[in-house]
Structures are given as C-alpha cells and as structure tokens.
C-alpha cells in the first residue's frame, strides 16, 4: 500500500488480511519511502520484490505519477512479476485514463478497497498455480 492516508492504509491492510489475500502487507505513507523499500528488495532473483502494489495518485511530495516514473527505472527482472494497481479517491476521468495508459498499471480502482476488488484481482490478474 502506498497512500498518504494512514486510516486508509489500516483499513486496506485489514481487508487484505481478513480475505487472506497476501502473506505480508507493507504500507507506506510516502512514495519516496516505498521506492527505497522497493530498491532494497531488488535482488538477482527478484523474489523479495512485492507481487502487488496499490498506489494512490494524490500524495504530498512525490505523487503516484512521479512514483511510476521512478518505478520504471527499477530492474525489469523485479518489476515484471509485480502487478501495480491505482487505488485512488480521484474520480477525474483524465486521471483514470492516464492511469490506464501507463503500461505498468494493471487497473484503476476507486477507493475504498473491498473484498470484491480483491476477488476481481485474483480472477483477472494473478497467476494461477495448478
């Protein structure tokens, strides 16, 4: 979770844990802090890199768009296995179109995160192991 709203991060973490959606959940209130974490997670195998990121658009300092620009500079072997989703309260059609125009962004979702969104992500984007 990358969102400057501490309450939203807490709620999202709770939903993710209650739905058994992820083994580990990390929240960052600043995009810069999240980028530092991601940089430290890059290794030759890319195994420590997150599988999924929820990113807010409007944040003080580095916003979601600036984050994506920096995210692109990370090694592809790490980012190729990661699904990046915009999760924002922004309802501006331009923001939604812009998010969907970035190849790194799998989908745009409006807040709040819900079990239905997680189910949609499971069905549409996550690799199935059989």
TrEMBL record:
Keyword hit for Endoplasmic reticulum? no
Where is the PTM 4-aspartylphosphate found along the chain? Answer: 56
List the keywords (alphabetical): Phosphoprotein
What is a single Pfam family found in this protein's UniProt entry?
Response_reg
**Xref: InterPro entries:** CheY-like_superfamily, Sig_transdc_resp-reg_receiver, TCS_response_regulator
Record domain Response regulatory: where: 1-126
This protein's record includes keyword Cytoplasm: no
As given in the record, the signal peptide range reads none
Q: What is the lineage of its organism?
A: Bacteria, Pseudomonadati, Bacteroidota, Cytophagia, Cytophagales
| Organism of this sequence | Pontibacter amylolyticus
State what protein this is by name.
Response regulator
């Amino acid at each position: 979770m990358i969102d400057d709203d501490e309450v939203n991060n807490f709620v999202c973490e709770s939903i993710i844990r209650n739905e058994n959606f992820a083994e580990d959940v990390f929240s960052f209130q600043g995009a810069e802090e999240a980028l530092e974490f991601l940089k430290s997670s890059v290794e030759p195998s890319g195994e420590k890199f997150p599988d999924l990121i929820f990113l807010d658009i409007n944040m003080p300092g580095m916003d979601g768009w600036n984050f994506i620009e920096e995210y692109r500079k990370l090694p592809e072997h790490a980012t190729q296995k990661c699904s990046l989703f915009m999760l924002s309260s922004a309802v501006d059609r331009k923001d939604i179109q812009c998010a969907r125009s970035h190849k790194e962004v799998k989908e745009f979702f409006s807040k709040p995160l819900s079990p239905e969104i997680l189910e949609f992500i499971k069905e549409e984007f996550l690799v199935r192991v059989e």
